[in-house]
Write a structure and sequence with these properties.
Length: 88
């Protein structure tokens, strides 16, 4: 949503976000209080990386859900040792 908002504007990002949230093919998972603590731990542990807090939250959720591959154009995801980024 952030990339869409930056590239084509807020209205498009909101429309796409609404459509994705209604689509049963997608699962929306909240980070929650425990996940927030884990994300902060990851953020501190990898302070040498350019990972944002959101990047760290992605890694936490991937671990929680047993996901080892993600679709992302973000080069920082490719730095995460536990995740395979597609497209490479």
């Amino acid at each position: 949503m952030t990339l869409l908002k930056a590239r084509v504007g807020g209205p498009v990002a909101v429309r796409v976000g609404r459509e994705l949230r209604r689509n049963p093919a997608y699962s929306w998972v909240a980070l929650g209080a425990e996940g927030e603590v884990e994300a902060w731990t990851v953020f501190q542990r990898y302070e040498d990386k350019e990972w944002s807090y959101t990047d760290c939250a992605l890694l936490v959720l991937a671990r929680r859900l047993g996901i080892n591959a993600v679709f992302s154009f973000d080069h920082r995801v490719a730095q995460m040792p536990e995740l395979v980024r597609h497209p490479r």
